[in-house]
Amino acid sequence: MGIKERLQEIVGEGFVNDGAAERYIYSQDMTENITREPIAIVMPETVEEIQSIIKMANETKTPLIPYVTGQNVGGLTIPQVDGSVIVDLRRLNRIIEVDEDAMYALIEPGVTFGHMRKYLDDNHPDLRYAYLLAPPHTSVMANALLQGLGDLSNKHGAMGDFINGLEAVLPTGELVRAGSGIMGDNNWFGRYPLPDLVGLFSGWQGMTGIVTKVAVQLWPKPPILTHVALFTFGEKETADLLIEIGKKQIVENADCMSLSIIKMLLDVSFPVQTYDGEPDFGTVIAISGNTEVEVAEKIVVLNQIVHEAKQTDSRHLLVTWDAIAKLMGDQANAWVNFPSDAFKVLAEFDGLTWCGAYFHPKNWGTALAGGREIVERHGFELMAFLKPMNSMHFGELKFIIRFPKDDETLNRVRKCNEELFDFALDLNAIPYKTPVWAAKKMHERIDPGFLKLIKKIKETLDPNNIFNPGRWGL
């Protein structure tokens, strides 16, 4: 009996695909990463089915690639070896529990940001999750396990820190839990004080097993939430101003974008150009509080910070959201009401990629300036995005490229991203959603003891090397 037939016995004939069209779709994403077709796609619905798939894979030495929606913009679900099977987890899509007292949600892989937002609004209107600048159909679990970011990352850090615990099937088929859920159901309030085994799955890009449930933290909705827009000039000046604002601990969220992204969102035709005298960056700032007075006082402090910065460059400008809304109409709300399709213009072409990394604050200005030079030298739009994170302890910076997937452009994209990546490593940044080619570059620079340790962990958990082999250059 072949692999397809064995998979059909496990999940049913309707949930195994090996047609040319299906294999082609799952062989790629929107990035410039090299494509490779799987031999089949399987869609389990239960933990037991996942365990049976893993048992079969160990017997046949079949590589398995965990997948939900493929919206990772890093080539992370493209097989690295021939003969791989994609394990599409979208049918596991339940919100199992929401605990209002400990403020967490226990969910399955197929729960998207759109699902989460609607479910909380309908059933737990006083609670919210952290939402991101991505399509609403993006997986909440995948983003958390990839240590991504959302609109509460300014205050609370990467989404890997939002995980209270998880349930996972190991590459050997065993079912395990990490976090307070080890004490039983309805008990997913935290990760400590325990050996932090969540780290065996967080950041591993599906190399150590399939996570079947994750408990993620929720937060109270603030009674008052307002927004302002800050327009700034100069890379160093913008970075310094964001650092000063962040250290005052008065803002809930701050998304800094090069002016070209803002123009793109206003439907300026490709390629977006900027001109002398225009601001270099626009930052959307969210301020929340329990009363109007509290929010007003925070805005007073923000105005004071901007006023001080204007002594150096009088062109910096803080604008109320009412003024933005009058200019943009309903589109203004889409910019700040996540998850949102407002950023779908990023996918205007069939190609979308970025080089993103987490940076020390002292290097933000240098990274913005150096990245601009690289991107423009390779002939692409400047689409820079900077987000202070974890109460200003670090920040995320990425340079986004949207492009048509012709051979000449793909070659330019690869060269540009490689140069951006080397530049980030020179600044001791830590790349995220790291494609294989980039991870191999990291091997040359990172602590050798760390590299040996993750290899040992991978070999111990996955003795037959069936889970995403080749990922992270391992």
Task: Give an overview of the whole structure.
By secondary structure, this protein is an alpha+beta fold. The protein has three domains: 3-89 and 464-473, Uridine Diphospho-n-acetylenolpyruvylglucosamine Reductase, domain 2; 95-220, 2-Layer Sandwich (Uridine Diphospho-n-acetylenolpyruvylglucosamine Reductase, domain 3); 224-431, Vanillyl-alcohol Oxidase, Chain A, domain 3 (3-Layer(aba) Sandwich). It has 15 helices and 19 strands. It has helices at 3-11, 20-25, 47-60, 113-123, 140-145, 153-156, 235-247, 259-265, 292-310, 321-328, 330-336, 364-377, 407-426, 436-443, 448-461, and strands spanning 16-17, 40-42, 64-67, 85-88, 95-99, 104-107, 127-128, 163-169, 175-179, 210-217, 219-220, 224-232, 253-258, 281-289, 317-320, 351-359, 384-389, 394-403, 430-431. Strands 15-12-14-13-17-18-16-19 form an eight-stranded antiparallel sheet. The chain has a five-stranded antiparallel sheet with strand order 5-6-10-8-9. The chain has a four-stranded mixed sheet with strand order 1-2-4-3. Helix 7 (235-247) packs antiparallel against helix 12 and helix 12 (364-377) runs antiparallel to helix 13.
- Determine the CATH topology of the largest domain: Vanillyl-alcohol Oxidase, Chain A, domain 3
End-to-end Cα distance, whole Å, is: 31 Å
Look at the structure and name the CATH superfamily of the largest domain.
Answer: FAD-linked oxidases, C-terminal domain
Q: What share of the residues does DSSP label as strand, in percent?
A: 15-25%
Please count the beta strands (DSSP E, at least 2 residues each): 19
What is the CA-atom radius of gyration, in angstroms? 23 Å
Give the averaged pLDDT, no decimals.
93
Q: Kindly state the percentage of residues in helix.
A: 25-40%
Name the CATH class of the largest domain.
Alpha Beta
Sequence of strands across the biggest β-sheet: 15-12-14-13-17-18-16-19
What form results from the Cα inertia axes?
A: globular
